[in-house]
Design brief:
This protein is α+β, with helices and mostly antiparallel strands. Among the domains are: about 40-70 and about 280-320, no CATH class; about 80-270, Helix Hairpins. About 40% of the residues lie in helices and about 25% in strands. The protein has three helices and 20 strands. It has helices spanning about 80-175, 180-270, 335-340; strands at about 15, 20, 25-40, 45, 55-60, 65, 70-75, 275, 280-285, 315-320, 325-330, 345-350, 350-365, 375-380, 395-410, 420, 430, 435-440, 440-445, 455. A six-stranded antiparallel barrel has the order 3-11-14-13-12-15. Strand 16 (about 420) and strand 17 form a beta hairpin. The two termini are about 25 Å apart.
Length: about 450
């Protein structure tokens, strides 16, 4: 956690026990925080495959390795990829065959359906014409024919009976009936009985035709017409749906085939990520140097042999040869609000007490990150030769206020904006003062004291 501090030079006033001589001197306040050296220029190493996700590491360069342009950085196992690629190619061929079959089926359906529709229309027209013919002509003729059959039987009986009557009359006048005449009469009487039976059958047939056959035929003709209409409507509706369904299936098959082609092409391109080469000469570090941070520990979960490379996320960083360094820090909201782009200061490196580096603000973010911190980068004036490398830490102090002739007193000498000023002969008086800024236990006095006065206080007070 970065804590805001004030930086100052020591006051020129001298402290003698519980006394402080007020003198004019240089007084500064500073913003202090921790920062990390990071390279100015980096090249992030990542893969952006579209289809293949299982990049299992076989070999990789170690963290901190120096590489030349074109040197391998990571090599992955691609046996499973090759099997998948072959299977995708075969599947695409089968899809192509299926697509061609669908096209053929649709073409055949586009010919077959109009024929089926025309046939259904012809059948309906035939039933419509047949019903009209029956209702207008045939029905009356069939009734008339049935009635005529009965009348014909009646006439036949009448004629036969009349013939028998005439024969009997003729033979009675002769007064003698010969054997031949008896045969003729017998035959005629038989004809009468046959005519009577024929009439009985004709009457029954006529009654059946008028009471049963004709009403049934009325119903059958109407039902045949209605069924033909239903068949026509059903055929037209079903064929329209069949055609639409086949068109949709073909459209879907074409989209799926096109998508399979696209995925296969992307899968072919993804082969390029199985071996990654250095884009330039430099140093490889594990982890992503982005957003002013470097979390190498995040790669421990996957950046090792048989580990799986992440997609669309940097996992290595190449630092080009002869790279420069910048200081990067993350500030709290309080420190961010104190910062001004013109601030300058110094940076001290632990372990290098003799090296003090001048720094100035390079850039600062206007919005916080997800943790509520604000990014800050600082330009550092480094000597031509130095042992600094990325990842090293520094204590930065940016001057936020400066007064070359400031009057200061120890903070412990203040009590409710007043101080005790020493007079002659051991006496003292209370002075009310206007307080300015504070730094490292000293407070700037803006008014109420003059240079040369001695302020007394309880040195044991905290």
């Amino acid at each position: 956690m970065k804590t805001p501090l004030l930086f100052t030079l020591l006051t020129t006033a001298s402290l003698l026990g519980g006394e402080h001589v007020v003198k004019a001197g240089k007084f500064e306040t500073a913003l202090k925080f921790d920062a990390t050296f990071l390279p100015i220029e980096t090249k992030l190493i990542e893969i952006k495959p579209e289809e293949w996700k299982d990049y299992r590491i076989l070999e990789l360069v170690e963290h901190g390795s120096e590489v030349k342009e074109g040197n391998p950085l990571v090599a992955c196992d691609y046996d499973s990829y090759l099997r998948t690629l072959a299977a995708r190619k075969e599947a695409l061929k089968l899809q192509q065959i299926s697509l061609e079959k669908s096209k053929r089926e649709l073409a055949e359906l586009e010919v077959q359906i109009p024929r089926e529709n025309a046939k259904a229309k012809r059948l309906f027209q035939w039933e419509s014409d047949s019903l009209a013919q029956y209702q207008k002509i045939d029905r009356a003729l069939e009734i008339k024919q049935a009635e005529e059959r009965q009348k014909r039987a009646e006439r036949t009986l009448e004629y036969t009976e009349e013939e028998l009557k005439q024969l009997l009359k003729m033979y009675e006048e002769d007064g003698l009936t010969e054997e031949t005449e008896e045969i003729i009469l017998k035959r005629q009487r038989s004809s009468v009985k046959t005519a009577e039976l024929a009439l009985e059958r004709a009457r029954a047939a006529t009654k059946w035709a008028l009471e049963k056959v004709t009403p049934k035929k009325d119903i059958d003709k109407k039902e045949a017409h209605e069924n033909a209409k239903l068949q026509l409507d059903s055929t037209l509706a079903k064929n329209a749906l069949r055609l639409k369904e086949k068109q949709i299936q073909l459209s879907k098959a074409e989209r799926e085939y096109s998508e399979a082609q696209r995925k296969l092409e992307n899968l072919k391109k993804d082969k390029s990520f199985f071996q990654l080469l250095a884009p330039t000469e430099g140093i490889i570090v594990h982890g992503s140097l982005e957003k002013n941070t470097w979390p190498p520990s995040a790669t421990d979960k996957f950046l090792f042999p048989n580990g799986k490379l992440p997609s669309h996320k940097p996992f290595m960083t190449l630092i080009p040869k002869n790279h420069g360094l910048q200081l990067h820090a993350k500030l709290s909201q309080e420190d961010h609000l104190k910062l001004h782009p013109t601030f300058t200061g110094t940076a001290e490196i632990k372990g290098l007490p003799d090296l003090k580096i001048s720094v100035k603000v390079n850039s600062q973010s206007s919005l916080p990150d997800s943790s509520g911190k604000y990014d800050l980068s600082l330009n550092a004036e480094l000597p031509n030769e130095h042992p600094l490398v990325m990842g090293m830490k520094a204590k930065v102090s940016l001057v936020t206020y400066q007064n070359e002739k400031a009057l200061t007193v120890p903070k412990k000498a203040l009590k409710n904006a007043t101080v005790q000023v020493k007079l002659t002969e051991g006496n003292s008086e209370t002075r009310t003062v206007k307080i300015g800024r504070e730094q490292d236990g000293f407070v700037e006095i803006l008014s109420g004291l003059e240079e040369g006065l001695v302020v007394i206080f309880d040195d044991t007070r905290k």
